[in-house]
Amino acid sequence: MSISTHAPKGGQTPVGRWLEERLGISGIRYAVPEHANSLPYLLGGITLFGFIILIVTGIYLAQFYNPQPTGAHDSVVYIVTGVTLGDLIRSIHFWTAQFITLTVLLHMLRVLFTGAYKRPREVNWYVGLGLLAVTLGLVFTGSVLKFDQEAVEALQHNAETATILGALGAWFSAEFSRSVPLLTRLFNGHATILPLLFALFITAHVYLIKQHGISPKFAPQAKTRPTNGEGQSRFDVHLKRMVGYGLLTFGVVLALSLLFPAPLGQSGIVGVELTKPWWMFLWLFPAEELLGSKALIVVPAILGGLLALVPILDRNRYLAPKRRKTLLSGAALILVVIIISGIVAALQPVAQHLG
Questions:
Q1: Cβ–Cβ under 8 Å, residues 159 and 186
Q2: Per the confidence metrics, is the pTM higher than 0.85?
């Protein structure tokens, strides 16, 4: 008696039928627009894939990290020199953080350029701004944890801005708790509070995308509208593309990690400024030279306020960039100023800003 090797009716294997009956996997085959599978519309998914890498590598690194000021730097040295694959895992964590910061910024610019913040997607724009803030918060707190010279200077900038904020900045100051060092509290924020906020924001983000659909492709007469249930492609195809680009991202990150291991400076000296911050914060230095530490609060607050105003200022239904010249021109000008400011800061010698 022979056993048939053909798949059961419907083209499903027994395992496939078992999974379908219990998980309803076919539900992900809903329609999405074909342009959703292009790279600009996959940047958000690539960023999410990067966050998964960060979570996995971060859990591993946390097993060997000492969040006490007296032992933090030595524990990172131990991770690099004594932990199995420690240097590689730390480098993957480092380069992935750099990469997703870039992709989340490019994703925001794509949403801005294509008008995907317009009705009915305004709430998702604000959720996206929350994700951007959480990403930068994770990058900043992560840069402090290594507790080398650059990290100590970042921590001192953090303390100065907390003093300027007064009661609003209490959590970021050493005075908030005499029993727990500020570095330990920032580690707790990096490992628990910010990931929890990320989980809440990303859940809302994905839900709203499913609720309203992918924004229509901009064309001369295209208008914003819900598109859920429309399209010539399927979400499972979109998901496969996302995973493909995610694996490519991991390959690039792995290559960078092997060629250029994550940097680690000497143990930090309090009260001096000998280094520059990572590129995503470097552009603030010229403003800090003019305004002092309050620039680290004022400038991001102004920029965040302008981003929050985008759906309010641009309320027409058209998506074509030529119908949104004023807003996009203003955004382009701000972007150019930020880039130039970053270049100027990179070329300037290190300056004393602390105090």
A1: no
A2: yes
Relative orientation angle of helices 149-165 and 122-145, to the nearest 10 degrees:
130
The model's pLDDT over 180-208, given as tens digits with 9 standing for 90+, comes to 999 999 999 999 999 999 999 999 999 99
**DSSP per residue over 123-161, as a string?**
HHHHHHHHHHHHHHHHHHHHHHHT-BHHHHHHHHHHHHH
Tokens of 294: 């309050």
The residue type at 289:
E
Which CATH number is correct for 32-276, 3.10.180.10, 1.10.8.60, 1.20.120.1460, 1.20.810.10? 1.20.810.10
Residue of 266, 288, 229 whose CA lies nearest to 33? 229
Taking only the tens place, the pLDDT of each residue in 232-256 is 999 999 999 999 999 999 999 999 9
Strand partners, 318: 223
